Amino acid sequence: MNPLGFAVVVGLLVGTWAQVDVLRPLCDSPDVEEAAMAAQDYLNGQHVHGYKYALNRIEDIKILHRANGVDTYVLEIDLLETNCHVMDPTPVANCTVRPKISTAVEGDCDVVLEKIAGVLNVTAFKCKTDESREDECEDQRGDCSNLLPLNHTLALDFVQASLATFNNNTVNKTYTILEVGRMSSQVLLSSIQYSVEYVVVEANCTGNACIPLNDPMAERGFCTATGVKAAHSVDCRMFPAPMMPVVDANSTVAAAPAVPPMVHVHTGSLSHKHGLRHHKLTSLHDPHLSGLLSSESGESAEVVPVVPAVVDAAAPVAGPAATADPAAAADPAPAADPTPAADSLSTSESSNSKEVPLHIFKRDVVAVDALVPVAPPACPGRVRFFS
Q1: Among 201, 186, 98, 195, which residue's Cα sits nearest to residue 141?
Q2: What is the secondary structure of 219-242 as a DSSP string?
Q3: If we measure between CA atoms, which residue out of 278, 233, 292 comes closest to residue 76?
Q4: What's the rounded Cα separation, in Å, for the pair 117 and 166?
Q5: Which has more pLDDT, 198 or 376?
Q6: Most exposed residue of 79, 88, 163, 335, measured as fewest CB within 10 angstroms of its CB?
Q7: Do residues 107 and 59 lie in contact, with contact meaning Cβ atoms separated by under 8 Å?
Q8: How far is the C-alpha of 236 from the C-alpha of 18, rounded, in Å?
Q9: Which carries the bigger pLDDT value, residue 143 or residue 135?
Q10: If DSSP codes are grouped into helix, strand and coil, which group holds residue 123?
């Protein structure tokens, strides 16, 4: 490209980017909530392990409006883990958010979306997932429920024992573990009780070896079990079969069956290669290409407003005239004070009431509060579950 052509292209690009309006709407406005829900659904679609996440709060929003009609949304959102596995077809709106007492898992995500002709599309995101340890059980007796690493050997043995119990009560079908979602332990009656959650899939078994059926229509389900290895209860709920797509009678192309989300199949000892206690959200997707997300952590710094100090009527007033001697404080005419008129006024007022300085301070505070109303913040938005 010759220098003149290059200069023209650069000029056009600069002109396009220069025509950008930055909008800061309310976090709870309908347009922003629509973008946040689109981000939630997209992130759940990218999440292939563990559980679905629900929108808890919109932390911040910035909309870049260009002259060509393209709007770019830069969102900061908080998500909370639900009890619905990613393979569960239940809509997120119908899933229960895991409470803090059960060690909730939070996702902090920065998401970039583009809105073109009314259609929202995610172009980049970055997420950080962590446990919420607030309000956790702190019983000193040691009988709190503790979340366990997903490679905890004894808990995985309990998973296998509960699966064997389920298979023994199933007719004509055998299931194997598709993924362990969560495991916890609790000391009850001087013994360690386990509580586990896992996904099963229909399998083809020969002896003690079971291989998951390589079939999109193979039955899958979500199981919970509690107790000890020798005595426990197990309950499994099968997911509905994937819906077959509607076939156009005039089409000559065979429609492919709907394929459930793929997750990692655990075999043998079920041992993970990591010691995490929960499944993390997918962390990154093109954060650098968008030019709007940094490679740093998604956490935002919080600015705490300074609250004015309350003056105690019995406390000495701080300042140049303050002194530890009460008699000196009541002296109507300090030698160093260059304003005798003010001293005489102070002397006459102090003879009538010793609370005049406090009254003056209170009148000032009330006047400021009355003249400067506090506007509601545009962001962050409302908390849907808990903070």
Answers
A1: 186
A2: -EEEEEEEE-SSSEEEEEEEPPPP
A3: 292
A4: 51
A5: 198
A6: 335
A7: no
A8: 58
A9: 143
A10: strand
Of the candidates 213, 211, 204, 157, which has an alpha carbon nearest to the alpha carbon of residue 185? 157
Helices (H) and strands (E) in the chain, counts: 6, 12
C-alpha–C-alpha distance, residues 120 and 51, integer Å: 24
Number of C-beta neighbours around residue 206 at 10 A: 7
Confidence of residue 321 (pLDDT cuts 50, 70, 90): very low
Which secondary structure element, helix H or strand E, spans residue 358, and what is its range? helix 356-371
What Å distances lie between residue 230 and 182, 183, 363, CA to CA? 20, 17, 74
Question: 71, 67, 75, 64: which is closest to 116 by C-alpha?
Answer: 71
φ, ψ (nearest 5 deg) of residue 177:
-75, 130
The secondary structure of residue 211, as a DSSP letter, is E
pLDDT at 151: 94
CB 177 within 8 A of CB 206: no
What average pLDDT does range 337-364 have in this prediction? 45
* Vertex 17: Cα angle to 8 and 292 (nearest 5): 130
Q: Are 262 and 178 in contact (CB under 8 A)?
A: no
Q: Is the pLDDT of residue 165 over 90?
A: yes
Is pLDDT of 246 > 50? no
- 344 versus 226: the higher-pLDDT residue is 226
| Confidence (pTM) | 0.69
